[in-house]
Amino acid sequence: MGEEQFEGSLYSYVSPLTQARALKKIMALSSARSTTAVNDSDTRTTGCLLTGIPGLEHQHIWLSIPFCAMYVAALAGNGILICIILSQPSLHEPMYIFLSMLASADILLSTSTMPKTLANFWLGSSHISFDGCLTQMFFIHFLFVADSAVLLAMAFDHFVAICSPLRYTTVLTSTVIEKIVAATLTRSLIMFPSIFLLKRLRYCRINIIAHTFCEHMGIARLSCSDISINVWYGLAAALLSTGLDIILIAVSYIHILRAVFRLPSRNARSKALSTCGSHVCVILFFYIPALFSVFAYRFGGRRIPRYVHILLANLYVVIPPMLNPIIYGARTKQIWEGAKQMFSHLAKESK
């Protein structure tokens, strides 16, 4: 693709209104830093501009309302869930340890994107430094991979509990859980090399990222260097981490469903199927928008409207964190009992 074609594809992602606003901000930043021209400005110096949702700029204020509500609900729900699990010794079991890990990852994942997105929607605060953009990108990908690994650990926990209940305590020992936690954190570093892959590139074009947050390919497309390595590394990292998780989770739930259908009681089957169904829905809400974002950014081109891509990318950082405390927590009897005990204890202490 030639330079003129690249610039055309870049501008096709953003509306004229967004382009005009972004150019004004770039010119202001460039003059403040004594840069000579916008097109020759170094993104490392001037930073990046996050446009929000191109084509829906006039709807930013209205879009911020559901985004803010979901973010607050995610913070409150996951925060309460973590407090319940930590405060109740009866919940210090593998299933609830994994659930507290999922809640922690959800809080951090949504917090890595939503504050900046809402500041952009409300205040027009679209500028972010280059290093800040790299930091946000790293934590988004790190936490997404960690979230995926925890979902896999929870699927394995459900598989052992349903398919081999007598071996549950011997399989999921404290040592095994510690190894799972260590493996989750270690494997999440798979996106760390992407920082160096982006730093090696030469940036010489207008530094507009048509998104609400910084993504690997969003930053890479600002470069006028060859980004083939970035494209294929990002794709390989996604497939080898989350792709493998999806396969293993699917295998776990296939075995779980086979065990459920062999249950003698119809009520037990119905209850188990309802629980599995809700878990699968949350997992699909998490993976489908994320994988769509990964493939659309690399291969979608102009065939997919930009605002569709960005809206779906925002869904996987707020909807699953909002739903997880409800699906995995509020519908669990032990969590309800723990919540009653925790709030009862707090009420007694306040008197």
From TrEMBL:
Major localization listed first in the record, in broad terms: membrane
GO terms under cellular component: plasma membrane
InterPro entries: GPCR_Rhodpsn, GPCR_Rhodpsn_7TM, Olfact_rcpt, OR51/52/56-like
Membrane spanning residue stretches: 68-88, 94-112, 133-156, 176-198, 231-257, 277-297
Membrane protein topology class: Multi-pass membrane protein
Compartment list: Membrane
UniProt organism field: Acinonyx jubatus
Gene3D superfamilies named in the record: Rhodopsin 7-helix transmembrane proteins
Function description: Putative odorant or sperm cell receptor.
Protein name in UniProt: Olfactory receptor 52B6
Residues of the G-protein coupled receptors family 1 profile domain: 77-328
Swiss-Prot/TrEMBL keywords: G-protein coupled receptor, Membrane, Olfaction, Receptor, Sensory transduction, Transducer, Transmembrane, Transmembrane helix
GO MF assignments: G protein-coupled receptor activity; olfactory receptor activity
